[in-house]
Amino acid sequence: xxxxxxxYQQLLARKCPRSPLWKDCLKAFLFGGAICTVGEGVSxxxxxxxxxxxxxxxxxxxxxxxxxxxxxxxxWYEKLAKHAGAGTIxxxxxxxxxxxxxxxxxxxxxxxxxxGAKLFVIAGPVLVYGIAASVVYGLILYAMxxxxxx
Amino acid sequence: xxxxxxxxxxxxxxxxxxxxxxxxxxxxxxxxxxGSRFDFVAENDRMxxxxxxxxxxxxxxxxxxxxxxxxxxxxxELDAVLAGDLLNQCIGSFLASxxxxxxxxxxxxxxxxxxxxxxxxxCLVEGGAARRALAAASSHFCSAERQYRFPxxxxxxxxxxxxxxxxxAGAAVLTAPSYAPAGEGLRITHALFGKxxxxxxxxxxxxxxxxxPAAYDTLCALLNDLHAAPCDFxxxxxxxxxxxxxxxxxxxxxxxxxxLSPVYSDCGSLLFSDGQDTHAGGSGCGCSAAxxxxxxxxxxxEGKLRRLVFAGTGAMMSPTSVQQGxxxxxxxxxxxxxxxxx
Lengths: 150, 342
What we know:
The complex is a heterodimer of chains A (about 150) and B (about 350). By secondary structure, chain A is mainly alpha-helical. Chain A is built from eight helices and no strands. Chain A has helices spanning about 5-15, 20-50, 55-75, 75-85, 85-90, 90-105, 110-120, 125-145. In chain B, helix 1 links the parallel strand 3 (about 15-25) and strand 4. In chain B, helix 6 crosses helix 7. In chain B, about 60% of the residues are buried. The interface between A and B is medium-sized, with 36 and 32 residues.
């Protein structure tokens, strides 16, 4: 038989198992929701301790990043993420995981060229395009006459 | 003398002897269905080393030492070491042989490296360029992940078609018959170097799909050249197509009216059990190297198998080529091993 690219791609479409999309979405929703519920509890805790809403939000972000980093160091985060998928990537704990895991991995190449250079290897694009988007948003806001001097 | 038969098959009239072989694997592989049939199972995948790359080279070194010991061959008696792995510039292999003071030929055939090393080694021995040659290959889950994918502690998900890079190494010593004890059992009788076959696969998480057409091409060519049917062999084993690729290969051959299933196995499917969460099965140079140099060649020595086709399969890709949108080609080198005598 002469192997034919089009026919082979059709065979692949028939034979290759696909990710269970609905199951994955449901698990991501449940795990992600659970992390956010914990975050809500942490926020209530800080407000209960006397912080105002804005300070409590900052303190919550710091606390959740700490938990994300801690679970990453204990190698629990990746076990959770195996089931949670986007549910563990999207919350701020996922950002902590994306920073701490390369730090752990690449320290064998030294603190400067290993850990330092590779720290943002996963989170880097999020920062680049997040900051770029915020600049574009700011320019649009400025052009529309909004966001004037405080 | 090396004789070309048919289109692409090489026949070794002198039949280089597969004198000895050994396999060393990591902890997870040791817990798999073949665990008791390897020469060495690591208690800890770090192997007491300060990096994963050094751990891999230590694993390969272990397999090489054991193979030499079993054959009663001293390192300096080797005329060539043909070794390879998955890491950039094959550091797992050159670090393993760095101080061995033996002519060294680095190999890269992705996961087909062991078959490539054996076939080339057989050519060197048969052609008189080497009296004794050693072929070795290794891979390590942790060193491969950090090079090809993500840090170990990163929380990502794997697709159902993804394979698990085996922490494993295998080594085999080849000698000219005049340097082997009389009547020695295992011989390499034929080899076939594979062509790269590319059919538009770009998904690096589906290497079984990228490799299956190459395995099809090589096995068809070999059977044609030898005028043989699958049942003329006790076992035809592919390197690491995994469960997805193995199914594709059987389907492609079935469309040609060839039923490979009675004698077919795949190293990637054999190495791990379903419960070990490796998705489509094992992969990596060490996967086929360890399964061949451990369980399969032991079965041959014990007389359970007499004629084996070892078809090492590899996916030709790198993170750079995939990111630049290049397709993934498959390759498959085949070696025929026979047991002579009682």
